[in-house]
Design a protein that fits this description.
Order of helices and strands: HHHH
Number of domains: 1
Radius of gyration: 10 Å
Shape: globular
Strand content: under 5%
Distance between the termini: 12 Å
Largest sheet: none
Structural class: mainly alpha
C-alpha cells in the first residue's frame, strides 16, 4: 500500500476535513501509541498503519 492510498482510505472513512486531524491526534495501540502521522514519520509501513487504523475504527473485514 502506498501513502496516497492510506490517505484516500482515511478520507473515505473519516471525511476529508476530519481525516488529517484524526491522523495527527489519535494515538493507536497497534502503533505503540503513535499517531498515523508519527508512524509515517518513523517509517512504519503503510499497510501496518492501515491495519492499526482498521482495528481502531472497527471497520468491516472487507475494508482490511
Amino acid at each position: 500500500m502506498r501513502e496516497t492510498e492510506l490517505w484516500a482510505r482515511l478520507k473515505q472513512h473519516l471525511g476529508s476535513g476530519y481525516a488529517g486531524v484524526w491522523a495527527e491526534q489519535v494515538g493507536l495501540a497497534g502503533l505503540q501509541g503513535r499517531t498515523v502521522v508519527e508512524a509515517l514519520a518513523d517509517g512504519v509501513d503503510c499497510k501496518t498503519i492501515w491495519r492499526a487504523v482498521w482495528v481502531s475504527l472497527e471497520l468491516p473485514d472487507r475494508e482490511r
